[in-house]
């Protein structure tokens, strides 16, 4: 597969992983797959997580320090955050429109609801406990959490990405404010370190097709067990809900982002999609914006021609606070659960969902499954039974893959928009993807 482009290698790995998972389920090779194949997927994810913190820290420091003045940083930062919040609110609103029009929750029978509650009772309790800890915090706790008391402690936890971003911004601003001759050696050090980290990313990505194969093979056998028909039946029961979520995600990726790319970014969307495609495929297979970040940055710079000083600031920030796909999913899932329980949500309650889902997306960790924990907070705010999460846990991993793809595409879209408005977009004449 060495002669194939990376995105084709990843696609082949995904297809073979699904095929192997179904065969393993049919032939009784579930334990073999979980013991001898799935761990390689975990190793691949760990490698991506390994490089996430160093990449964000170093790339943000180099990106901010290269802006040369604090006023420019302020302009780019406010522009980036404003666009991120705008697209997130739009995603939540469209999700609410979809779920109210199609009403997928009313397709569940009481018997099926009880079956899901019993099957996922322990997982639901675990998610509820995690969310309860967040819910008990004060209104300004998210602001407090952004400022670390020990940066080295924060760097040992991928869930503390906002704290790392805060330190990197502070460090980069300090480099701008000290005399240039004193800052030069530090800038050179971080430039060299950044190159080394990017080379590590290249090395890790050589294993991407095999890691993706192992990830999806393990996912399919966990989902189906020894009965492949169980997966099919489950998907049929929850298919309506999944379709509604998918329509919303497609709305973002096929309508909202194209409009933004073509009007503000002044770029053909086909060109944009071709350039970001490897990152989309990795996002789909890993369900992690943070794990995909190295590839997203590489695609944005090499394939889309976005200046490094923009990507090194906008993309790490987006991987942490911009979760359009996750926010849309939370809106649909919350109302879906309310419908399944026969709860009619008022307009005020649904507007509360918009606010909560938007704010929750900012604090959600860019790792698989984080959206479920934040969904509990959304449910509590709207007065929807938390136990209803049991209804959507089964297909959540698949939807997580889809919404992460949207999250990553949204990050790249905003990066292109900011680059164009700053005169930092220089698309290559031809896209070459490794």
- Assembly type of the chains comes to single chain
CATH architecture: Orthogonal Bundle
Instruction: Give the overall average pLDDT.
Output: 81
Element string (H = helix, E = strand): HHHHHHHHHHHHHHHHHHH
What is the strand tally? 0
What is the 3D shape? Answer: globular
Beta-sheet strand percentage? under 5%
- Tell me the major beta sheet: none
Category from helices, strands and their pairing: mainly alpha
Radius of gyration based on Cα positions: 22 Å
Tag the structure with descriptive keywords.
Proton glutamate symport protein, 434 residues, 19 helices, globular
Question: What does this protein look like?
Answer:
The chain contains 19 helices and no strands. The chain has a single domain, classed as Sodium:dicarboxylate symporter (Proton glutamate symport protein, Orthogonal Bundle), CATH 1.10.3860.10. It starts with 5 loop residues before the first helix and ends in a 13-residue tail after the last helix. The longest helix has 36 residues. With 434 residues, the protein is mainly alpha-helical. The model has no long low-confidence stretch (mean pLDDT 81). Helix content is 79%, strand content 0%. Keywords: Cell membrane, Glycoprotein, Membrane, Symport, Transmembrane, Transmembrane helix, Transport. One of its GO terms (biological process) is dicarboxylic acid transport. This is Glutamate:proton symporter. InterPro entries: DAACS, Na-dicarboxylate_symporter, Na-dicarboxylate_symporter_CS, Na:dicarbo_symporter_sf.
């Amino acid at each position: 597969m060495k002669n194939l482009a990376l995105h084709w290698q990843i696609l082949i790995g995904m297809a073979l992983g699904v095929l192997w998972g179904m065969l393993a389920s049919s032939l009784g090779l579930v334990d073999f797959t979980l013991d001898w194949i799935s761990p390689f997927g975990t190793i691949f994810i760990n490698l991506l997580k390994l490089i996430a913190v160093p990449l964000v820290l170093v790339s943000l420091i180099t990106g901010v320090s290269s802006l040369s003045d604090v006023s420019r940083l302020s302009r780019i930062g406010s522009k980036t955050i404003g666009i991120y919040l705008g697209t997130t609110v739009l995603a939540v609103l469209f999700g609410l429109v979809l779920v109210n029009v199609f009403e997928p929750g009313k397709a569940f029978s009481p018997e099926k609801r009880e079956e899901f509650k019993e099957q996922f009772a322990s997982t639901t309790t675990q998610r509820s406990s995690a969310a309860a800890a967040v819910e008990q915090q004060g209104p300004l706790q998210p602001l407090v959490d952004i400022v670390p008391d020990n940066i080295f402690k924060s760097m040992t936890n991928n869930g503390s990405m906002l704290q790392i971003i805060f330190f990197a911004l502070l460090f980069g601003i300090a480099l701008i404010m000290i005399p240039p001759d004193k800052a030069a050696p530090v800038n050179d050090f971080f430039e060299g370190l950044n190159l080394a980290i990017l080379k590590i990313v290249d090395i890790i990505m050589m294993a991407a097709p095999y890691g993706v194969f192992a990830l999806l093979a393990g996912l399919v056998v966990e989902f189906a067990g020894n009965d492949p028909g169980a997966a099919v039946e489950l998907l049929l029961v929850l298919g309506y809900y999944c379709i509604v979520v998918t329509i919303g995600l497609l709305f973002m990726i096929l309508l909202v982002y194209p409009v933004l790319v073509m009007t503000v970014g002044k770029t053909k969307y086909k060109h944009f999609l071709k350039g970001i495609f490897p990152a989309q495929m990795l996002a789909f297979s890993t369900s992690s914006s943070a794990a995909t970040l190295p590839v997203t940055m590489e695609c944005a710079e090499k394939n889309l021609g976005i200046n490094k000083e923009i990507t090194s600031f906008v993309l790490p920030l987006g991987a942490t606070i911009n979760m359009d796909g996750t926010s849309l999913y939370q809106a649909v899932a919350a109302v879906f659960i309310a419908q399944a329980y026969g709860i009619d949500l008022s307009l005020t309650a649904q507007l509360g969902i918009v606010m909560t889902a938007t704010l929750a997306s900012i604090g959600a960790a860019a790792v698989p499954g984080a959206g479920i924990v934040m969904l509990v907070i959304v449910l509590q705010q709207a007065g929807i039974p938390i136990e209803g999460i049991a209804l959507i846990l089964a297909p959540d991993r698949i939807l997580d893959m889809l919404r992460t793809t949207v999250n990553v595409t949204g990050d790249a879209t905003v990066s292109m928009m900011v680059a164009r408005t700053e005169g930092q977009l220089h698309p290559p004449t031809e896209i070459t993807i490794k």
